[in-house]
Amino acid sequence: YSRYCNNHSSALAEYTILNQHMVYTIFFESCRLLKDMESIPLDGYLLKPVQRICQYQLQLKELLKYTSSSHPDHAKVKEAECIMSSVASTVNERKRRTENINKLALWQSSIEDWRGEDILVKSSIMIHSGSLYKISAGNKQLRRFFLFDRQLVYCRKLLGSGKLQYKGRMNLDQCQTVDLEDNSEPGIVNGWKMENQAKNKWIVLFSKNNTDKSAWINALKEERRQVELDSENNFVIPEAQKHAAYVQVRRSNSTRSKKQNSFSQKYKSTSDLRSSLLADKTSKDVKSKSNKKLKGFSNKMFLKKQKKLAHLHD
User: Which of 253, 275, 263, 238 minimizes the C-alpha distance to 10?
Assistant: First the structure.
């Protein structure tokens, strides 16, 4: 049911595309007439299952309201209301997560030198992010970390451009978080260790203060809880939707790139741009002066006519 609701927006988009062709419009209408169905467009019928989730919940709440606690059906009605409330929450969460994958695909496209599998292969939500110090093989490095379900990605901020460059990631399904007491390792305060048991590797991470550390530890616990919940609910993003998200990002980036190239071709240097801006300003100043002259001329003509009329009246 929730998968149908998640796919509802994609189904509507497909229906809109097909409905632009007369052959499909006639086909849909013919099917409706053959089954003697109400005069409602197909998109209206597609919406009905989505609406029913909320309607069932509201009806059960109303039924529970008028069912006495001593009635033999009270417990069953209450249980049914709780189940439908849970279903509605699950559907809303899945819809939010499904819509969120476009943002993740866009985020990945902004990272320089991305390597390995796409972010959407394992993840569907960003849980936390921030700057942390990373110690690996004795080297201390400041990195920008992004916590997703099932993986932790870290990047380096490039000087000048301010963009982020991909440096690595950790598979959290194979990692264990170990809290470190302050100075349990030389110079490490507000830190913890991430151990990759499968590869027998580890890194030490530490934050600038204890507040940031607490936020990260809680976020890592939330990540494990989210993964477990997704497993229980069989939550999976359809491959078609992942593909559609990357296609949309590529189109968006292509449009932006064309606009930038067009701008670059028109203004090949900063001096060309400056000259164009000055020309526009000069043109505006000339128009402004011209308008002022016309306005002054109009005022003079108006005054002359007034004097002439006053003279004739006298």
Answer: 238
- Spatial distance between the Cα atoms of 27 and 183, rounded to a whole number of angstroms: 73
Q: Two tokens at 22? A: 């007369």
* DSSP 8-state assignment for residue 208: S
Residue pair 97/237 in contact (Cβ under 8 Å)? The answer is yes
Which of 70-79, 90-99, 107-116, 131-140 shows the lowest mean pLDDT across its residues?
Answer: 90-99
pLDDT for position 256: 66
Torsion 158-164-167-172 (CA) sign: positive
| pLDDT tens, residue by residue, 148-191 | 999 999 999 998 888 999 999 999 999 999 999 988 777 889 99
Q: How many CA atoms lie within 13 A of 305 on its CB side?
A: 6
Question: What span, in angstroms and rounded, lies between the C-alpha atoms of 272 and 278?
Answer: 10
Helix or strand run (H / E) with residue 4: helix 2-6
Tokens of 210: 């204890």
67-50-78 Cα angle (round to 5): 20
Entry pTM: 0.66
- Encoded tokens for 14: 């497909």
Element housing 226 (H / E):
helix 210-232
Q: What does the DSSP 8-state code read for residue 164?
A: E
* Mean per-residue pLDDT over the chain, rounded: 82
User: Whole-angstrom Cα distance, residue 124 to residue 100?
Assistant: 7
Query: What is the spatial distance between Cα 99 and Cα 245, in angstroms, rounded to a whole number?
Result: 9
**Across the strands, what pairs with 147?**
128, 152
pLDDT of res. 51: 84
Instruction: Take residue 105 and report the two structure tokens written for it.
Output: 């695909």
Of all helices (H) and strands (E), which one includes residue 49?
helix 42-65
Cα–Cα distance measured from residue 162 to residue 164, given in angstroms and rounded to the nearest whole number: 7
- How many CA atoms within 13 Å lie on the side-chain side of 171? 12
